[in-house]
Amino acid sequence: MSELSNYHTVYISPHLDDVAFSCAGSLLLEEQKPLSITIFSDAEPENKKQAFVKRQQEESVAAVRGNYDFLFAGFNDLRNTKNARYFGLIWGEMEPHLITSVYEYLQKIVEQTQAKKLIAPLGVGRHVDHRICYEAVCKLHSNYPELEIWFYEDRPYSFPVYSTEVRLVELGYSVDVDYGMYLESLSKVRYMSHRNNEKKLARCRQHVEEISALSNHKEVREVQYITNHNLPQIWNIVSAYASQVKFFIGNEQQFAAECQNVALRYNKEKYAERRWRLF
Questions:
Q1: How far apart are CA 26 and CA 234, in angstroms?
Q2: Residue 34 falls within a domain, yes or no?
Q3: Residue 4 within any structural domain of the chain
Q4: Cα end-to-end span (Å), the chain
Q5: Of 27, 29, 100, nearest to 70 (Cα)?
Q6: Cβ atoms within 10 A of the Cβ of 8, count?
């Protein structure tokens, strides 16, 4: 890893679009230029690599539009490895050695950049790559207790009602969840409507049965809302990912509608992002 400049704030992006999809409003409000690190920025099979070159080019466009620096960690996207065995919302098991590898990489980043704040994925939607990033960042907290860590809600996986709360229940936190509303909302979201929809929903229903019986006692430390009403500028960042946006987000009008639905759930207007400080 080459020497890095100092950055007050570092964003962690599991894939080449996650920070922009989830935090575009925050990026535009940063007073100092932040660094965004994509962890799973590559693919193992040769026939997948060209697609990732295109996605890396999209990241460079988004970074200019969002005024942030970026770095590719070079780990292989687990959906695009030779032995990929994940489907839909990616219900794969996390491999401990990979969590350790990502942790060790991020440890070097924190030391080189002298970062004061880390903004990382909460893991809403259970995508294995997102959960690996979450676990690696939690390990960082143990060795860098002074580091301010916030977890963002992974979009579009957090678009369904109560999806974030379901993730918090998984993690042992005591929050209110209407599982019926969650499953109904999940069945209508765009990214669930393309392939193996019934298989995905059946696995989600099974997961709800598993976690609804939990008796949780952990309390969230702090919740933060970031509002930004400049939707055209936010969309300008999000739309840089032309290879992904149609499948996951749709067009500008659909994006605006989803964002407004989320903002209204937060009692905000037009556009808002929510972050969680868990420890």
A1: 9
A2: yes
A3: no
A4: 29
A5: 27
A6: 16
What SS3 state is found at 71?
A: strand
CATH of the domain at 66: 3.40.50.10320
Number of structural domains, the chain?
1
pLDDT digits (tens, 9 = 90+) for 75-104: 988 765 544 444 444 566 788 899 999 999
Q: pLDDT tens digit string along 45-79? A: 666 777 888 899 999 999 999 999 999 999 988 76
The continuous run of DSSP H or E covering 115 comes out as none
* Residue 1 in domain: no
Is residue 2 situated within a structural domain? no
User: 227 pairs with which residues across the strands?
Assistant: 272
CA proximity to 125, closest of 8, 22, 263:
22
By the 10 Å C-beta count (0-12 exposed, 13-18 middle, 19+ buried), 50 is classed as: exposed
Amino acid identity of residue 213, one-letter, is: A
